[in-house]
Amino acid sequence: MHPLVTLAWLLSTVAHKIWALSPEQVSKELGPQLSQSAVISGWDATKYGRWSEYHAPKPGIVLTPANEQDVAATVEYCTSKEIPFLTQNGGHGWAKTIHIDNDGLIISLEQLNSVTFNDDRTEAVVEGGAHVSQVINAASKNNALVQTANCNCIGTLGAILGAGYGNLMGMAGFGIDNILSLNAVMADGCLHTITPEDKDLFWAFRGAGPNFGIVTSAKMKSYPVGPSGQTAWIGQLVFTPDKLEKVVEEIDAITLEPEMCLFMVFLTSGEPDYTPMIALLPFYYGTEEEGRAAFSSFFDIGPTNDTTAETQYAHWNDVTDVFCSKGGYKPSETAGLSRMVPSTWEEAWDEYVSFVSLGGTGASIVLLEAYSLKTARSFGQDSSAYAWRNKVNFNAIAIPWYFDSSLESDAVAWASRLRDLWRSTDGLDSPAAYINFANDEDLSVVYGENVERLKAIKAQADPDRIFNQWFSL
Ligand SMILES: Cc1cc2nc3c(=O)[nH]c(=O)nc-3n(C[C@H](O)[C@H](O)[C@H](O)COP(=O)(O)OP(=O)(O)OC[C@H]3O[C@@H](n4cnc5c(N)ncnc54)[C@H](O)[C@@H]3O)c2cc1C
């Protein structure tokens, strides 16, 4: 092509993109097809900002649909205009694969946030943008329990479409094990209801959901409970560093009963000293007496501080609210583990102490999550696209957390070192990562042996790969 022709083509392409993405133009072209309550605006980081600013998308347009027909019209519009788009729910996805800049559009699901129950409270319909706090509040008022993630700020389906670990794991399995059907706008721009009869799609949406469409609502199992059925024993036990070896040995050894979950956290005391601390966050679905008995082996090790207490369902996640703070840079890394190795965790602790001594990094945390997995495993490895149901017993996460971008290279290197350290003794045949905690891993690390089946389903359902932000297949 003649250089002048190439230049003219380039200019017209760029001009088209800029022209196509002003809020006024999108309002003019798409507005008439949307309901009156749908909102089209420019990007506003204070309103739509994400949990981590590291590699965060910064779109030209935010479109907030008011109902699922608006979602369908928006997908159809973006596809016809070749506008890249990303669904935003709670805004906590930290994977580097998420990338939208000012020629792209974010579909914010914040207006799709209702949670309703059937008469006998055995089913809940959770809309695509409902946050965990909204689901728990609605469930609590209806005297029912619904499996969600353990932090109030998370998009309920944002977590569940990747698998969905939560406090009710031991009793209800993963979030995906509780899905009865899904309403989703797919690549054809149409709304579909996906049921277990849609064998491949029902399997693929539950573990790799964001690759296949925008879920506008999910019908989920709900568990009716009486007044005492909303009580759990939760809190924080602090241990001195010399107890770390014993704590880790015990996490490896203990059999978590269905009522139990356990987190270990490296964190600091905060301002002004930022003293590094080791804390356990036990969870027991039941009374204080039962909880203390179930976790007695950790009390035998000798915590120096104990804030545990009986807590009602609507407040179960208060203990993790501190992790919800938005803003700052958090280039996090993860590793799935089959076992806990004390020497690895002692090395991880030394790494943590050294990193938070840098200054400006004192909000950083290291997290280890352990759940009772018997019920989740009873559904069978092939029941969903989540690859690590039978292999991973623990998930470890390093979350560097800083506000001064000059700390980036130290932070990225630190988190990668921890991931490599954990992998070196993970006890697995190959590295594994829970997709919702992953950063930029190879597809085989997040999807395991499911990569080829997922790709084949993707080729049918979304041949042009318009849903391409989330470990795209
Ligand atoms: C503080 C914190 C606590 C966490 N706790 C837990 C936990 O207890 N259990 C757990 O399993 N995970 C947990 N996670 C991980 C969490 O599951 C992921 O970060 C998840 O991706 C967050 O979803 P979101 O909706 O908040 O984020 P978003 O960034 O809005 O969404 C994440 C991805 O999912 C897609 N998506 C979201 N909603 C939909 C939808 N309705 N339809 C289609 N695609 C959609 C988005 O497009 C994006 O690609 C936690 C993360 C953080 C930061």
From TrEMBL:
Keywords: FAD, Flavoprotein, Oxidoreductase, Signal. GO terms for molecular function: FAD binding; oxidoreductase activity. Residues 1-20 form the signal peptide. Its cofactor is FAD. This is FAD binding domain-containing protein. It comes from Aspergillus sclerotiicarbonarius (strain CBS 121057 / IBT 28362). It holds the Pfam family FAD_binding_4. Belongs to the oxygen-dependent FAD-linked oxidoreductase family. It comes from the Eukaryota. Residues 54-225 form the FAD-binding PCMH-type domain. InterPro entries: BBE, FAD-bd_PCMH, FAD-bd_PCMH-like_sf, FAD-bd_PCMH_sub1, FAD-bd_PCMH_sub2, FAD-linked_Oxase-like_C, FAD-linked_Oxidoreductase, Oxid_FAD_bind_N. PROSITE patterns: FAD_PCMH (PS51387).
